[in-house]
Structure prediction request, 526 residues.
Amino acid sequence: MYGWEMLSFNIHDGFLEAIVRGNRSGLLTAADYNNLCQCETLDDIKMHLTATEYGPYLQNEPSPLHTTTIVEKCTLKLVDEYKHMLCQANEPLSTFLQYITYGHMIDNVVLIVTGTLHERDVNELLEKCHPLGMFDSIASLAVAQNMRELYRLVLVDTPLAPYFSECITSEDLDDMNIEIMRNTLYKAYLEDFYKFCQKLGGATAEIMCDLLSFEADRRAVNITINSIGTELTRDDRRKLYSNFGLLYPYGHEELAVCEDVDQVRGAMEKYPPYQSIFSRISYGESQMLDKAFYEEEVRRLCLSFEQQFHYAVFFAYIRLREQEIRNLMWISECVAQNQKNRVHDSVVFIF
Amino acid sequence: MSSDSSWARALVQISPYTFAAIGIAVSIGVSVLGAAWGIFITGSSLIGASIKAPRITSKNLISVIFCEAVAIYGVIVAIILQTKLESVPSSQMYAPESLRAGYAIFASGLIVGFANLVCGVCVGIIGSSCALSDAQNSSLFVKILVIEIFGSALGLFGVIVGIIMSAQATWPARA
Prediction:
């Protein structure tokens, strides 16, 4: 019942909620980003980061630093925090936390399968996988030749198995197929997560459904923009959109028939929450769209901390850390490649 | 009263001492339940929040003390109520005055018990928010403390009415 979770939420989850809020105060602030953007070398960045919560992870790194090392260590911190939370969590919070990683699992599966298709070394690919999305039999993904084998040999034992029901075909894997598989899986995953959150009820359902709807809508727009000019038919495109969210169902009908970016814009501007995103981008410019969506997402994630006694803070914290790692990666890449004038292009301030 | 087998008659047949004893039990038992509930809501958040911000622990003990005060109200009223119990001759057991005394102590216990239950839960929830927000921004502590004080005043209302109510409990004088 809505509102009454205040009475019982803390029995199982009060301690962890307080911990995750404590972790949140360790996120880098605008002042930190301003300092980081002033850095001249990667060692400067390391020096600034040692003053933050990343300190213990970076301080023993030898001096010729690489961007990948910084990103790897920052991700390691996120993974450590995630594992700590998962150890402490009770049902249904532990299921909720596991749901958060399924997105990374899908990305990892796609990464390995695409890599194998292009004849890359499996170990090299495994290093690139996101550690949150690892599962035991991930290395054996490389042997699969088509979707059916992929499913039967490997994925049937993973949590992703139920999501595969819609995309089992005997066709050989190719780039297009894999991309469709990724989006079909993601669609099934988001719908499942959405249903799970609705089942949890209360403030969790209210906030998580809003966040997931935004995610689904963002994916719908990205699918549309990326599929313009490809051989994907309108019906196939329509099938990749998740069956919930603000755009469902009329917005999806409009997006399915879009032929260029300005038509997408026309379809999206009918929805007030997305109007503000599109109004910030000038016509014909789809590069900045990603950043605008990220900014809106971060704004929504930060707002979820304004309410107490719900699970969305865990989701929001992990997402905000991931955004922070993306920011750090961009800043260090810009510094490493002497492109400091572009440093503000893709950094999304969190606070 | 009504016919011989009605609920109203059953209520009148219950000894006033039973009512009085239940009243006293509810007054302390339910108050302690409320206090304990509040302390665990506050405490679990406080422990978690103090990992990253250890400075909040001693300040936020005030929230725990506010919850504890709720249990003390219950103890005080239970003691007051039990001093109201007097023995009456068995001929006077079901006299209207005895019944009134029994009901008064019963009602007083219910009032205090449930007022303190919700008061304890209320203070506990505010205390939990207080701990979390103090950990983020220490200037919020005093502001939320004011809210907490108003919350804990709710329990006092119950105590006041309960004590006035129990003043009605006068047993028939020994003949």
Chain B has five helices and no strands. Residues 22-82+93-168 of chain B form a domain with the Four Helix Bundle (Hemerythrin (Met), subunit A) fold (CATH 1.20.120.610). Residues 96-136 of chain B form the longest helix (41 residues). Residues 24 and 79 of chain B are 8 Å apart (CA to CA).
